[in-house]
Amino acid sequence: MKIVVLGGAGKMAPGANRFLVNQEDVSKVVIADKDIDRAKKEAANLGGKAEPEYADFKDPDSLVDLLSDAEVVLNSTVYYSNLKVMDACLDTKTHYVDLGGLFHTAKKQLKLSPEFERAGITAINGMGSAPGIVNIMARYGVDRLDTAEYIRIRDGIVSYTDTEAPVKAPYALDTLLDEFTKPAQVFEGGEFKELPPFPFSEPEEVQFPEPVGTQPSYPTLHTEVYTLPKTFGDKGIQEVNFKLALPSVFKEKLKLLVQLGFGEEEPIRVGGVEVSPRQVLNELLSRFEDEKDKSPDDHKVLRVEVGGEKDGREVEYRLESIMHPMEKYNLATGTLTVGGPGGMAAWMLARGDIKKRGVFPPEQCIDPEYFFKLMGKWHMPVYSIVRTLVN
Fold first, then answer.
1. What value does the mean pLDDT take over residues 302-310?
2. What percent of the chain has a predicted confidence (pLDDT) above 70?
3. How crowded is residue 234: how many other Cβ atoms within 10 Å of its Cβ?
4. Which residues pair with 6 in a beta bridge?
5. Are residues 317 and 189 in the same domain?
């Protein structure tokens, strides 16, 4: 089977790339990227199954050529490419996976479900860490309840990696800038509500296991807050929220840059030339991207709490994964836990493990226990704690 990883030389893709080349039934992994030199370097690092190829999601014809003989494409580029790549998949009848749509784009993607169903293909929207793993954790908990009242998601990230970069983003910088500049969304009392962007709301002090520890966590714009209430509406869900804790030094630096205007996309005039502040920031920070030889020392905790009733009793399921770098392949935690799940979902689609056709969030088409077994084998164990009210 042939699987294309679009943006395969980018920040999050190596976790997927490594998982895919390690699967015996995968014959070819195409590392597709507009930076062909980086794609060649990544392919060489992965071995014989990986092949570099130039690709640019802004060129629809080249996308169609790229996907014409592939079973699945994993889109690991920025989320605003999702709809363009999905259009190409409809033309080539190629299964599709991405790492998230940041709420508003995900809404547009899910509307394409009838077209994907008619084409006989599947698209999974938001199959990274969060969204992705946390959606499947939520599914596990809700399935074991008669009614579900709340789903509370907490994502804590710390980094002690030695780096020369003045600002080292744990995942895609454009996504982070949007999280810092666009209003957050929560689902409360059965309806969606806007809150200030991350990290401009009041924080919640969340006690994560070490080495993450207690961290201020803030609401932010996320896809799962949109999909989970719709998926589990028949269980009576009334509350869904997502809160994020980022490495404190990084958070404060990026907050200052956003306050100075570097999160803005609209061009400003500087010395008679129009420039986009965001593009300038991306270009400056790209000079520090190639640091894969350094030992990663970042860590993450994903936690999902699902509360409701079972047999007339109040019950809460807490699903949690404590995540660390994968030393064997020198994969940072961020790369492992965002790209890795996307690679797993792409592999499952290529194998025929997922039968549903259309566009779905992960909680609607992936079996939790099967997926957690894959995660456990790939250095990401998931634990469950059940708390029941005794009366």
1. 98
2. 98
3. 8
4. 32, 75
5. yes
- Please report the pLDDT score of residue 384 as a whole number: 96
Write b or e for each residue in 200-226: b if 16 or more Cβ atoms lie within 10 A of its Cβ, otherwise e. bbeeeebebeeebeebbbbbbbbbbbb
Q: What is d(CA 85, CA 91) in angstroms, rounded to the nearest whole number? A: 10
φ/ψ of 79, rounded to 5, equals -65, -25
Please provide residue 253's backbone torsions phi and psi, each rounded to the nearest 5 degrees: -65, -45
Q: 28-48: string of b/e by CB count within 10 Å (b at 16+)?
A: bbbbbbbbeebbbbbbebbee
pLDDT digits (tens, 9 = 90+) for 62-86: 899 999 999 999 999 999 999 999 9
Whether residues 65 and 105 share a domain: the answer is yes
Residue 278: inside a domain: no
> How many domains is the chain partitioned into structurally?
2
CA separation for the pair 189, 192 (Å, rounded): 8
Are 152 and 62 part of one and the same domain?
no
Half-sphere exposure of residue 196: CA atoms within 13 angstroms, side-chain side: 7
Q: What is the CATH number of the domain that holds 216?
A: 3.30.360.10
Give tens-digit pLDDT for 259-276: 999 999 999 999 889 999
The arithmetic mean of pLDDT across residues 236-251, rounded, is 96
Residue 116 sits in a domain whose CATH number is 3.40.50.720
Q: Are 324 and 347 in contact (CB under 8 A)?
A: no
Indicate if the pLDDT at residue 292 is higher than 60.
no
CA dihedral 303, 212, 180, 101 (to 10 degrees): -40
CA distances from 84 to 87, 90, 92, 110, 173 (A): 5, 10, 13, 14, 20
Residue 49: the pLDDT is 95
Question: Among residues 161, 107, 206, which one has the least CA distance to residue 333?
Answer: 161
> Is the pLDDT reported for residue 252 higher than 90?
yes
The residue range of the domain holding 91 is 2-128+335-375
Residues 309, 359 within the same domain: no
Asked whether the predicted pLDDT for residue 128 surpasses 70, the reply is yes
Confidence of residue 171 (pLDDT cuts 50, 70, 90): confident
pLDDT above 60: residue 291: no
CA distance linking residue 78 with residue 72, whole number of Å: 18
What secondary structure does DSSP assign to 126-172, as a single string?
--BTTTBHHHHHHHHHHHT-SEEEEEEEEEEEEE------SS--SS-
